[in-house]
Amino acid sequence: MKRLILQFTADLHLKRYSQNSIQNHRLDVLRFQDWLEPQGAADIAGLQGATRDTVLVYQGELARRLKPRSVNRHLSSLKLFFRFLEEAGLLPLNPMDNLTYPKLLPQLPTMLLPGEVGALLEAPNEAHYLGLRDKAMLELLYSSGLKLNELLGLDVGSLQLDAGLVRVSGKRERVVPVTEPAQAVLRRYLDEARPGRLLHPDDPCLFPGRNGRRISRVGVWKMIKKHAAAAGIHKNFNPRTLRHAFAMHLILGGMDLDGIKLLFGYRQLEATAIYAHVNTPDFRDAYRAYHPLTGPPAGPGRV
After folding, report:
1. List of domains in the chain
2. Do residues 33 and 8 touch, judged by C-beta distance below 8 A?
3. pTM, whole model, 2 decimals?
């Protein structure tokens, strides 16, 4: 089964899944393998003999230890794995067909106020090369709504600063705008901070870490935590929080969910459902009432 999992991950790589997604899917399938081993079914014959009931029993085991969202992620990984086996002609019947997933309630993201985002963006010390690099990363995460994986994968050639754009790659390549403040910081970073910081001078990566190689996920997490603490932000915070702030602040400014869908590269409008509550009069009034940098609630027609 290990050989099949290696082939499965290679197939995901060819299909342009991100490294983080590939790793998560691999670990989920390995967990399924661990569950099958005591039953003597962790081989191709065991997989070929798997039925819908097999998966339902495993789903029940997962549900005893994990939250519904995590259960769904594991099931999605298995669905990809069994589809790979089916496409390779190794599976006569896919046990994942017509399987019902646990129903999830929309999970509202952490809300950052514009003033908090402003404080975070001002936290890095731009006099130091790492501070200028950090500010450039934070500006891109917020101004363009990038995913962490998209930020990590950026090369210098991904930037089109004269056009105010950045090209991000992943499962679906897209081009998104970059704000003028972010453009200015990126130009300074490229001129003043990036030169001489690469382990290999011809490395195209946009953001190197201290070791001169492309900065890691952990490196970005630590950077954000450090500057959030310096800015006095004590909310549950991660790189995705800035992406949510980007979406929420645009909606509060008047952008509709179709616009968010295009900027985020979503295929279906349903993916923006967690932001729908932001675009209601009650939420807007509450936002303006409690935000220290806003005036009284807006009247009819005001955004």
Report:
1. 2-87 (1.10.150.130), 114-290 (1.10.443.10)
2. no
3. 0.57
